[in-house]
Amino acid sequence: MNQAMKRKKRPTRRSQESKAPLLNTSPQRKGVCTGIIIAKPKKPNSAKRKVARVKLTNGNSLQAYIQGEGHNLQDHSVVLIRGGRSKDLPGVKYKVIRGALDFSGVAGRKTSRSTYGAKKPKK
Which of these, 23, 64, 77, 85, is most buried using a 10 Å CB contact count? Predict the structure, then answer.
């Protein structure tokens, strides 16, 4: 009987998967650096990108991109992680927040200061 009946197929509603799944729906997560890596970007680009291996408070381990010029990170530094991938580094889907916890801001930065944790320069 079921084969004889023509039922209308309803489209299944699929929820969008998170782009930063290891943060467990949090905007940021605290973690401890377990190592600093110098990585090379994908094909057309050439550079030495700085990446931190971080173990989060929820037990997950990940690689996070270190933005800006220079950094003071080393093993056992406590850092804050946010989502946001680095396009030319495969597998790096997270970034380290500058100017939070043990991670200093960029010295002498004048533009986009809030992203890099830099204070307003004195006149």
Answer: 64
